[in-house]
Design a protein that fits this description.
The chain is an alpha/beta fold. It is 56% helix and 8% strand. The N and C termini lie far apart (92 Å).
Length: 343
């Protein structure tokens, strides 16, 4: 009964080619990527393990294609074991069905095992792919198209690939990072931190959230939490440009003294230019205040005149400042100066 209903419906949808009444499925000789019957050994074509990929037969045709297309577009792939181009096309269709994650259903019909429906739909060459929406045939193609061509077909008739769940979570995290940084720039550090902490709780491995939270914690003096953010980064990101930048800021911040007044340090240094302690503290203060070049100048003088101060800290902090600046042209300039000073 189901098969009779399916055949009647298929006959209604089939193109008026005049061949629907033939007893045997006629496969015409193909042009470029369609095929005719051959005596090649049969090879089973594997199916992707996805709830959005279905093997069609007479029993489920009405449910999957006819009724199912009322809710979701159904892409029907007509194939056969002996068809070489079918084997090239099928993995592409399966891959895209998985990527689209339910935006369409891939229904595959073995034309040798179930020739009746293929006959009623006027299938004359393989592979043939037909797209149904709301019980109507809306488009089709024949032959083993390339992945880019199939993508274009789907984008035109179904729409773009929907974003994955993890991408949506990442977008949400990025939105909160932008909102938090705006709050921080407006002086609302506590609100910014609270927003980022909530974002981290929702997505503990979000790199952008960890980096932003680490920077805000440094600005508020919570260096331990900032270090926890740094350690929570995946190794590749911790060793990347932004990870090294956060590590550099943290290293400089650990050397800062909130009780020190930069103006007092400048006065002390004018009074005694040989004071390594005053110069070092001033270098750190300048760097953290955003006066990177002034900070590097003071550290470079220490490397030249008192390299062993504080167990070699001037050189270490100069390298940390390089990490903070990243690809700033000043880094190359001061690296050369550092090299000349050491050699």
């Amino acid at each position: 009964m189901l098969f009779n209903r399916a055949v009647a419906w298929a006959g209604y949808l089939a193109a008026p080619s005049g061949h629907a009444g033939r007893n045997n499925l006629e496969l015409r000789r193909c042009r470029r990527h369609t095929c005719i019957h051959s005596n090649q050994p049969k090879t089973r074509i594997s199916m992707a393990d996805s709830p959005h990929i279905v093997q069609l037969d007479e029993q489920n045709f009405m449910q999957v294609v006819v009724e199912g297309s009322d809710l979701t577009p159904v892409l029907v792939d007509f194939w056969a074991d002996w068809c070489g181009p079918c084997k090239s096309l099928m993995p592409i269709l399966e891959k895209l069905a998985v990527e689209y994650d339910g935006a369409f259903v891939l229904a595959k019909l073995d034309t040798e095992a179930h020739p009746g429906i293929a006959q009623q739909l006027g299938i004359r060459s393989l592979p043939t792919v037909k797209l149904f929406k709301e019980r109507q045939l809306v488009n089709e193609f024949t032959g083993a198209l390339s992945e880019s061509e199939v993508r274009s077909f789907l984008e035109t008739n179904v729409g773009p690939v929907p974003p994955a769940a993890d991408e949506l979570e990442e977008d949400a995290g990025d939105h909160r990072v932008a909102e938090a940084m705006t709050l921080f720039e407006q002086g609302n550090s506590a609100e910014a931190r609270a927003l980022l902490q909530q974002a981290q709780a929702d997505d503990p491995e979000n790199v952008e959230v960890l980096l932003a939270l680490g920077q805000i914690c440094i600005s508020s003096g919570d260096l331990d939490t900032a270090e926890s953010c740094l350690k929570a980064l995946p190794e590749a990101d911790r060793d990347g440009v932004q990870g090294r930048r956060l590590a550099g800021i943290l290293e400089l911040a650990r050397e800062s003294d909130s009780n020190v007044n930069p103006q007092a340090l400048r006065a002390a240094l004018e009074k005694d230019p040989s004071s390594s302690e005053a110069r070092y503290k001033l270098a750190i203060a300048e760097a953290l205040a955003g006066n990177s070049q002034a900070g590097m100048d003071h550290l470079l003088i220490l490397v030249q005149n008192d390299a062993g101060y504080n167990d070699g800290a001037p050189r270490e902090k100069l390298l940390a400042l390089f990490n903070v600046l990243g690809d700033d042209p000043l880094v190359g300039q001061y690296r050369r100066k550092l090299f000349a000073s050491l050699h």
